[in-house]
Recover the amino acids of this structure.
């Protein structure tokens, strides 16, 4: 198969998943092209791929706006096969509605659905996940990637079911429409800034400039968190979301290489926020054992 992976990423969790997926597919003999969406990305050529994989991080129970805008410009022919690999920090059922805009567009173009997969990845906002939790997440993601690759080859196309209530709530919560533009008025770098230029170099919107030695934020902000997440001195203030800021690279490749933690992080005793992961991880383990005969 010739596979085209089209994805948006803020803090590189989706890029990391895309790297792993590309590796998995290449090892199985498929050819993989990839396009990372940002304000400067050319429109990908979809004419000679067999299947398109759409990757995105969930933002407020939705797909990111720049992702939606980019997909709108893609040339999708009737009968084009596509699948979705989305990710987010938790597995609340509301997240099931996040692909509703993409699915509607693909239906209009008469594209053919080839599966939807929800990966957990560590939060880049709200709070930082523990190292052992991230190790467990990455182990489950590895299994889900193998399931995805197997499904693509066998033609199995699992759906993630949403419902009218989730769809309405997800549309209502679409925080990005005004959020990025308004919140960006309150972005600033404080005196911990060492003028390294990393934020300006990496902003996917080209929204940050260093002018006469000081960092200036414009109003084309996706709320992707890349600037504040990777700032080496944690100097960036992110307006209304300041109390939810996460600063610091999770070093995913290193944690992946360490494998699952010695003791399971999520168990039947997990409570509160952590309780939602049990069912999700059990389902991955179940399907993995069914397909590959081991856990
Ligand atoms: C503005 C914003 C909104 C988010 N909303 C959600 C959400 O509704 N549900 C969730 O589980 N995670 C949410 N997250 C967390 C991200 O989906 C998650 O950390 C993801 O792995 C980030 O991927 P990336 O590094 O490719 O951008 C949000 C993150 C941001 C920046
Ligand atoms: S990444 Fe941080 S330290 Fe570097 S220029 Fe931007 S605000 Fe300053
Ligand atoms: S200003 Fe920061 S949060 Fe906004 S798009 Fe650029 S990197 Fe992302």
């Amino acid at each position: 198969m010739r596979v085209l992976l089209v994805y948006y990423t803020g803090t590189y969790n989706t890029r990391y998943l895309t790297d792993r997926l590309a590796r998995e597919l290449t090892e199985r003999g498929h050819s993989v092209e990839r396009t990372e969406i940002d304000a400067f990305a050319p429109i990908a050529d979809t004419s000679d791929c067999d299947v398109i994989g759409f990757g995105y991080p969930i933002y407020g129970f939705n797909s990111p706006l720049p992702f939606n805008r980019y997909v709108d410009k893609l040339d999708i022919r009737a009968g084009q096969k596509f699948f979705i690999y989305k990710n987010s920090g938790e597995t609340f059922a509301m997240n099931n509605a996040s692909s509703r805009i993409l699915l509607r567009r693909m239906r209009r173009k008469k594209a053919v659905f080839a599966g939807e997969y929800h990966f957990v990845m560590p939060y880049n906002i709200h709070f930082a996940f523990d190292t052992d939790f991230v190790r467990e997440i990455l182990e489950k993601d590895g299994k889900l990637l193998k399931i995805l690759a197997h499904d693509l080859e066998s033609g199995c196309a699992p759906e993630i079911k949403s419902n009218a209530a989730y769809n309405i709530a997800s549309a209502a919560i679409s925080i990005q429409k005004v959020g990025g533009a308004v919140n960006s008025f309150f972005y600033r770098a404080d005196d911990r800034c060492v003028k390294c230029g990393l934020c300006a170099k990496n902003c996917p919107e080209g929204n940050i400039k260093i002018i006469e030695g000081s960092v200036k934020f414009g109003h084309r902000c996706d709320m992707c968190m890349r600037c504040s997440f990777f700032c080496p001195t944690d100097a960036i203030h992110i307006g209304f979301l300041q109390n939810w800021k996460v600063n610091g690279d999770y070093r995913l490749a290193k944690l992946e290489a360490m494998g699952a933690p010695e003791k399971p992080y999520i168990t039947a005793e997990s409570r509160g926020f952590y309780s939602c992961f049990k069912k999700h991880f059990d389902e991955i383990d179940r399907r993995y054992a069914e397909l590959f005969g081991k856990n």
Remarks:
- The chain has two domains: 2-171+251-292, 181-244.
- Residues 189, 193-199, 215, 231-233, 235-236 surround iron/sulfur cluster (ligand 2) (CB under 6 Å).
